[in-house]
Amino acid sequence: MKKDDLIELTIEDLGVDGEGIGKVDGMAIFVKDAVPGDRVQAKVMKMKKSYGYARLMQVLDPSPERTESRCAFARQCGGCQLQAMTYEAQLDFKAKKVWNHLIRIGSLTDLAKPEIIGMDDPWRYRNKAQFPFGTDKEGNPVTGFYAARSHNIIPCTECWLGVEENKVILEKILDHLKTYHISTYDEVSGKGLLRHVLIRKGFTTGEVMVCLILNGRTMPKLTELVDSLREVPGMTSITINVNTKNTNVIMGTEMIFVWGQDYITDYIGNIKYQISPLSFYQVNPVQTEVLYGKAMEFAAMTGKERVIDAYCGTGTIGIIASRNARDVIGVELNRDAIRDARMNARENKIRNVRFVPGDAGWFMEGMAAGEKVDVVLMDPPRAGSDRKFLHSLLSLSPEKIVYVSCNPETLARDLAYLTKRDYLVKKMQPVDMFPVTDSVEVVCLLENRRTRPGKRNGG
Ligand code: SAH
């Protein structure tokens, strides 16, 4: 086999990123957008010693797990790796992905394949979207998404993961640009005005926010644009973000208030959040509630516990936990997130939670030197936790650890470390936070072998 050869193969499995895998002459061939059970024709793109990559050309005999992609641009965009799979097959893929990583840990070999919690409706779950603006060959303004691995904009105002308001708002802005001959930003020359548009919606409140990211501080005929955007039901906040740097980073740091409020509000459970254009907020609030609800169920607190929320971000888990704990301390590297976490606690009149800026490992070292903690909740980034943190976690020796993970690979690595020492994995729950993409979250309960549950509480 060599580059450009046409091959026929049956897809037997899925790789970790959701790409189909089949065999030709004993060699594994990775075919993006192919589904297990498909018989396909593919074109060889690259061959290595024992495996290769091929491009899907034609589905000769479709798998029962194959479905029509909802989005006409699914393959060009690459944002939704699993569009061609039925939702049931997607959930099965994710549960298996978690299982495959975890059974490699010695102590978990007898783990049964876990059930994953999916969504009733796996579409339009994202409350946030950022659309780049540019021009087409004729010089007309366009918006859409970047084609995979490039900065070419494919015109498209309809994304099935986003809210229906996105399309309405984007078309109003495109109309405005055309009517008043307003320029869009060109990454090469660094010239032109409109770079991106950020849209957010509070799913519980219905409040909508638009932030225009400009290579400048204002836009011609801004009042006319505001009048048009105000017609969108729920419109609550219109702002400008100034970004005059020649960079890939979407947002600048300076905000200019334009109309309404400079933030919107939303709820996760009965906790209220103020969301401004620059603040972090969970993009799928429905499944966030499910995920953190599971974390609370696993922690099974009685109201007497001392709790750490490590990698706390804007404090979502810690604030939920504070309702059932004596006190909670959150730790987080990002100072802006700490500021929002404190504001969220204040707004919700929660007084038994504190937030500390800094490295979680450094913080744990300090705690392990003399404090007693009952429950550690941890929600690290994709890279997982580090040795410093895990080592101090063992010295601190809480009765329970609830590990929330967005990457089963680093979760497995960290659990291997903890289960070789004092901890046992008691419960495990995958949750589908991002349907149609290849990512999966897991919440996991670990119990200390050295302390009997309940013994230390209120001690
Ligand atoms: N539960 C949080 C989100 C956690 S995402 C929420 O609801 O907001 C992971 C967080 O870990 C990010 O906010 C990131 O800034 C933070 N982080 C990454 N490395 C860190 C470290 N070494 N110490 C502390 N926090 C860290």
Distance between the termini: 69 Å
The order of strands across the largest sheet is 8-7-6-9-10-11-12
Bound molecules: S-adenosyl-L-homocysteine
Major beta sheet summary: 7 strands, mixed
Low-confidence stretches: 455-459
What percentage of residues falls in helices of 4 or more residues?
10-25%
Shape: globular
Q: Taking all residues together, what is the mean pLDDT?
A: 93
- From the alpha carbons, calculate the radius of gyration and give it in angstroms: 24 Å
> Approximately how much beta-strand content do the residues carry?
25-35%
- Counting helices, strands and paired strands, the structural category is alpha/beta
DSSP strand count:
21
What's the total helix number? Answer: 10
Describe the structure.
The protein is an alpha/beta fold and 459 residues long. It has helices at 74-77, 87-102, 165-179, 222-229, 285-299, 316-322, 335-347, 360-368, 387-396, 408-420, and strands at 6-14, 20-24, 27-31, 39-47, 51-61, 128-135, 141-146, 153-155, 194-201, 208-214, 235-242, 254-260, 264-268, 271-275, 306-310, 327-332, 353-357, 375-378, 400-405, 423-431, 441-448. The strands form four sheets. Strands 8-7-6-9-10-11-12 form a seven-stranded mixed β-sheet. It has a seven-stranded mixed β-sheet with strand order 17-16-15-18-19-21-20, with helices on both faces. Strand 7 (141-146) and strand 8 (153-155) form a beta hairpin. Helix 2 (87-102) packs parallel to helix 10, helix 3 packs antiparallel against helix 4 (222-229) and helix 8 (360-368) runs parallel beside helix 9 (387-396). The model is unreliable at 455-459 (pLDDT under 50).
